[in-house]
Amino acid sequence: MIRIMNAPPRGDRNRATTGVTLWSNLPANTRGMLLMAVFAGVVSLGHVIARHLSQDFHPMQAAFFRTIVPLVVLTPILMRQGPGWWRTTRPGLQFFRGLVGGISMLTWFYALALIPVGDATALSFTVVIFASMGAVVVLGERMGARRWAAIAVGIVGTLIILRPGTDGLSVGALVVLISSLFWAAALLTVKVLARTDSSITIVFYSSIYFTILAGIPAAYYWRTPDPEQFALFVSVGLLATVAQLAMTGALKIAETAAIMPMDFTRLLWAAGLGYIWFGEFPDLWTWAGGAIVFASTIYITYRENRAAKVEQGDHPANGPPH
Fold it and tell me: Does residue 251 sit within a domain?
C-alpha cells in the first residue's frame, strides 16, 4: 500500500516519459516558439489580474508582489549555482540597471490601472525601437539604412495607436511609452553588464532593486487584502516567474528571429483576456498600429540577429536580455 501511494501508476509514468520524448524530438525553434507562446499567455494573464486588482488597490501593491514573489522563488535556485554567483564587478552599473528597470516596471503597473491591457500591450512593442536608437546614441553602434527605415515605420505605427489630437492620446498611453523608454535603457545596460557579469548575477541584483523600489510606494499605499485578494496578488508574482522562465528557456534553445514573431500573441492574449474580464477590446487603430510597430521590431530583431551571427562567425546570436 505504501508503495502504491508513493509511486505514480505505471500508466502515468509511461505517459510522462512519452511526453518528454515528444518534446525532446521537436525542433529547437519549435520548442522555443511554444515556450514563447506560453510566455505571452502567462504574462498577459498576470497583467489582466493586476489591472483587476488596481480597481481596489493602488497599482504599486501589485508591482510589489510582482517583484517579491519571483525573488523568493528564484533566490534558492540562484544560490545552488555555486560560490560567488552574487559577486559583481560593476556595482554602480547594477544599481543603475535596477533603477531604470524598476522605474519601467512601476510606470507599467501604473499604466495598467489607466488604460486597457490590449492598448498598453500594443504600445509596449516600442521597446525594441527605443533600444535600437539608444544603441546608436549611447553605445555607438552602427545601423544601416534598412534598420533606420524600420524604426521610422515603427514610429508611424506608434503615432497611429496614439492618434495625437484625438482621444487616442491619453495619460496612460504616455506612461506606457515612458515605461518602454526606461526598459530600453535597462536592456542596453544589461548589454554592457553581460560583458563582465553573469546573467544569474544580473537577475539577482535587478530583483533586489526592483523589490526595494516597489516596496517603498507599496508600503505607503498599503491596504491589507483579504485571502482571495492576497491569492490574486501572489498569482501576479508567480505568473511573472513562469513567464520569465519560459522566455529564458525560449531564448536559450531557439534563434531569436524564429521566436520573436510569437511575441505578437501577447496582443491577442491581452485583447481576449481584457474583453472577457473587463469588456475592453482594442479598436481598429490600435490593432493596425500595433501590427505595424511589431512588424518593424521583427525586422530590427532579424537584422540585429544577422549582424551578430556575422560578428560571431555565423554562430547563433544571443537573445535580448530579460
Answer: yes
Is there a contact between 236 and 63 (Cβ–Cβ < 8 Å)? no
Cβ neighbours of residue 134 closer than 8 Å, sequence gap 6 or more: 184, 185, 188
Residue type, 235: S
Is residue 178 situated within a structural domain? yes
- Domain of 294 in residue numbering reads as 32-311
Length of the chain equals 322
For CA atoms 294, 299, 304, 308, give the dihedral sign.
positive
**Is 40 domain-assigned?**
yes
DSSP assigned state of 115:
S
What dihedral angle (degrees, nearest 10) is formed by the CA atoms of 203, 140, 291, 251? Answer: -30
Dihedral angle sign, alpha carbons of residues 229, 233, 239, 242: negative
Residue with cell 525553434: 29
Radius of gyration of the chain (CA): 20
* Residue matched to cell numbers 540562484: 78
How many structural domains compose the chain? Answer: 1
Q: What's the confidence (pLDDT) of residue 83?
A: 75
Tracing cell 482621444 back to the chain, one arrives at: 167
10-residue stretch averages of pLDDT, the chain, 322 residues long = 49 60 81 92 96 96 96 86 81 95 96 95 94 88 87 93 72 95 94 87 90 96 96 96 90 82 92 94 92 92 70 40 38
Is 319 within a domain?
A: no
- Backbone φ and ψ for 20, nearest 5 degrees, come out as -65, -40
Return the C-alpha cell found at 97.
Answer: 540597471
What's the pLDDT score for residue 54? 96
